[in-house]
Amino acid sequence: MLIGGIIDNCLLKILIKIFVQSRIISANLKSILNFDKKNNIIYILPNKSKLDLITLQNYCRKVGLSDPLSPIKIAGNPFPHYVFLQDSVNFRSAMMYNLKLVELLEFILELHQRDSKLNVHIVLVSIIFGRPLGKNRYDKNKIINYKWFSKINKLLKVFFFGRDSFIYFSSMISIRDIHAQYRFNKKFSAKLIRAARIHFIRQCLVAIGLQMSTSSNLLVTLLQSQVIKKAIAEEASSKRISHQQAQKNTIALIKEISANFSYVAIYLTDRIMRWSLGKLYQDINVRGGRRILDIAYKEHAIVYLPCHRSHMDYLLISYILYHQGLTLPYIAAGINLNFWPIGKIFRYLGAFFIRRTFNGNKLYSTVVREYVSELFSHGYPVEYFIEGGRSRTGYLRPPKTGILLMTLQAMLRENQRVITIIPIYIGYEHVIEVESYSNELAGAIKEKEGLFSILRGLKNLRNLGQSYVNFGEPFSLTKYLDKRIPEWRKSIDPIKTKHPVWLTSAAHDIAKHIMIRINNAAAINATNLCVMALIGSDQYALPRKQLIQQIDCYLQLLRNVPYSPDATVPNMAAEKLLEHALSMNQFEVNQNSIDDIVTLPKNKIKSLLYYRNNIHHMFIIPALISTVLIKNRKVDFIELHYQVSMIYPILEHELFLHWSQDELSGLLDSLVSEMERQGLLKKEKNYISLKEDFFYILQLLAAGAQEALQRYTIIFAILIANPTITRKMISDKSYIIAQRLSVLYGTHVLEFFDKTMLNTLIFTIRNKGYMQESKDLQYAQDIYFKNIYKILSNLVPQDIRITIERFVVDR
User: What keywords are assigned to this protein (predicted)?
Assistant: First the structure.
């Protein structure tokens, strides 16, 4: 028996060494390393398993932790370095705790009573091999456990899932702190064991999730819904068809929509993604992942709301969540992606498909709403793109509130379910679709997604640089509603199909907050910094030395006056960032005897502007300050604040800026002080004035505000000339004038050609009170309106202002 055990252990060690590659999930590994040196940490594992124990031993040796199989000494007494929560692997009956653990905890408590300096820490460790969906190792109705009952099963376990294993370390639990709070209590060990068990259950739910409903089970569940039954009856009545035919139509819609998770597909896709992303991207930078783990442990239903840059977004987010040790979400995808074989693969990875428009189809909208509600009722994580589609300009698109409304309705029906939204910023140094975006804005027809278009696009999959995924500040729907709409709980009705009157306005307000938090989590990279500097220069070219100075100016602004705590700024120096940007082969370098000239290639100007627009919101206020200063040479701070505050409400809404009007004065103070520190201007009492030495840096900084100011000037000039013009006429005329400016002055601004952005801007100007709408849909101007135009027309170049005014009166 002894020989058999030794052989068994040796065999497991060899197999684990060959086949197991574990990823660590921990927020405090450094703390564990420091405490482990003092030999006062005891690891608690969920259940008795040699496989788990040897895996932990290998990892501890790898990172420098002491061997968990070696005993430790606490207050001169020998203790095991590890202990199992329980010995039993059958959870059909009540939990059977490991008596050794109870005795150990009670003895350690007694030692803390005797020695006031003693401070033993406990760390809970979960080791998960593979994550087959719906496998809950604490299900009382099944014997599902990661301890295998035969040597063959152990071999299979390591062989198939060894490279898909995770080691989860909890935060350290201080026995001294607990003792100080609760004092000695014989019931303490039982409470701690209960808490540990709950932790392991939650850990399993975080990593593996609840059992995913199969398509057939979900179909049956939805057809039994009272809301669906009512919709079927109404469909039969309104279209004068039989009840059976209406039910067939409903079944077809459910099948069209539904996801069909497959662990095999996820496992294989992960292997492919791991290889391909390593080839395509130099690095995938992730920030804020710990926030999601903290929320998941609280058993909140999580909604991921990313911005939408590329088709890579779907795969990248799922890949990151999977490698963060989190359950994969159900993903709302456009029906345009439901083509063979991509549609089937995406369904296996959790995608459910939604049409772009419901076209008044009440049955379809009901089925979609009930499907989403069913997901939330079970606590499944859900992901959808709040912009509705991919951004063609690089700016955030106006949010779509359709699925957000469904999320709120689901919350009203599931009062006990806490839903938390995670805003996600996604940034790239190279977006493979960006050239097609600029072509579409120029009037080209959008290419329909299909297998052949994907195969053609594969040739562009090279040298994509770095990608960035920043998880922003979580947004709790419950806290928002409790604060803004205290009576919201009275609206709860499990089968109510009409939503309360406040719901639509709440959805729009929540969407605005989410967009702001996405922008707050923006990531700066080498490409967008270089484009920002070059796009404001003459001929779109700068000497290398000057370009480095300009990039350094941007970096210092963001480091010393941070846009937000969630934004990320590279730690590299400006020279290194430029070298990296040039390695992307997006820019041209012309050799010169004095200094190299870095240029934006003419055929790439529009496409490269996309990357500048990703971070434009972070520099718009410094750019506006620079513009006012250059125009006036010397300006009173009160006048500076007045001009910026007049324009700011439009910028705030269009670019989803997070500062309130009350915060604007303090922000301007901080930015002016930083610009003075950099030598760009000087302060004299209440005035600020130019410094000629670094005028060229200020000029390039100011260029970042010109496109926005010119767009605003066009719209206000049209309204000055014709106060009764309709919104559609403003949009059409603005578009024509913007095109003419592009031809005359070589303006390559993407948003000039995006009618969606123009329409949103016009709506913003009206909504912010710059113009008023009468009952017959005509507009009237007021004194406020004239003041804003006076400021704008002064800040744009005189020749452009004259051209705009001439085109405005041109019939």
Answer: Acyltransferase, Cell membrane, Lipid biosynthesis, Lipid metabolism, Membrane, Phospholipid biosynthesis, Phospholipid metabolism, Transferase
